[in-house]
Specification:
Layout lengths: L7 H4 L3 H27 L3 H12 L7 H7 L4 H13 L3 E4 L9 E4 L1 H10 L4 H8 L3 H20 L15 E4 L2 E4 L4 E3 L15
Helix pairs in contact: 3-6, 4-5
The protein binds iron/sulfur cluster.
GO molecular function, one term: DNA binding
Protein name: DNA-binding MarR family transcriptional regulator
Pfam family, one: MarR_2
C-alpha cells in the first residue's frame, strides 16, 4: 500500500509525494487569485472561468454540456452561471435555428471588456516563472504536459487538448511530429490547448 502522501513525514524521502503536495499548494494559489478577482468584480470564480474560456475557444465548445465537462461541474451549475452572466449582460445565447432548444454562448461587448479585466488573474504565478532558468522551465513543462495526458488517459481529467492525444501527433523515433502543421514539435512547442486538436 502507498504511504499517505500528505503526511509530512512521508514527504521527507519521497520526491513524488513532495511534488504532489506542492501541486496542491499551487492549485490553492490559483483559487486565491481567482477569488480575489471574483470578489473585486462581483462575479463568482466559475463565472470568470467561463468568460475567459468562451473568449478563446470555438463555438462548438461553448455549450452547457461541453463547459460542464471542461470545468468538471454539473450542467445545472453551468446553466446557473450562464443565467447570471446573461442577466449581467456579459454573454448571449446563440440558437442555430429558430426552433432549436440547444444553444451556444458568445460574449457581448461588455463580456469582452470583462475578460480584459479578469484574464490575467494568474499573472503573479507567471511572474514567478519568469525568474526561472529556461532549462528548468523546459523540463517542468515536459513533466506537466505528460502528467495532463496521463491524467486524461486515467479518466481523471475529462478534457484536454494536448498534442500527445491528438490524431495529428506522431512519434518519430524520440521526436514528436505534427502532421497538420507538418513540422517537428520541440518539447517547448507541444501544445496543451491546441485550437486544431482532434482526438485520436
Ligand atoms: S494539431 Fe495541434 S494538438 Fe494536434 S499535434 Fe498538431 S499542434 Fe499538436
Amino acid at each position: 500500500m502507498n504511504s499517505p502522501l500528505f503526511n509530512p513525514n512521508n514527504q521527507v524521502t519521497d520526491l513524488s509525494n513532495k511534488i504532489v503536495a506542492g501541486l496542491e499548494r499551487i492549485s490553492e494559489a490559483f483559487k486565491v487569485l481567482l477569488w480575489e478577482k471574483a470578489k473585486a468584480l462581483g462575479l463568482s470564480p466559475i463565472q470568470i472561468q467561463l468568460l475567459i474560456f468562451i473568449a478563446y475557444h470555438k463555438m462548438a465548445f461553448c455549450t452547457v454540456t461541453h463547459l460542464a465537462k471542461e470545468f468538471n461541474v454539473t450542467k445545472p451549475t453551468i446553466s446557473d452561471a450562464v443565467r447570471v452572466l446573461i442577466n449581467k449582460g456579459f454573454i448571449e445565447k446563440i440558437f442555430p435555428t429558430s426552433d432549436s432548444r440547444s444553444y451556444t454562448i458568445q460574449l457581448t461587448d461588455e463580456g469582452k471588456q470583462m475578460v480584459s479585466e479578469t484574464e490575467n488573474f494568474a499573472l503573479p504565478i507567471k511572474t514567478q516563472l519568469n525568474n526561472t532558468e529556461a532549462s528548468d522551465l523546459n523540463s517542468l513543462f515536459k513533466t506537466i504536459s505528460n502528467l495532463i495526458f496521463q491524467l486524461n488517459k486515467n479518466g481523471i481529467l475529462t478534457v484536454q487538448r494536448t498534442c500527445y492525444a491528438c490524431k495529428f501527433h506522431q512519434k518519430i523515433q524520440d521526436s514528436d511530429y505534427c502532421n497538420l502543421l507538418e513540422k517537428e514539435l520541440l518539447n517547448s512547442e507541444i501544445r496543451i490547448d491546441c485550437p486544431e486538436f482532434e482526438g485520436k
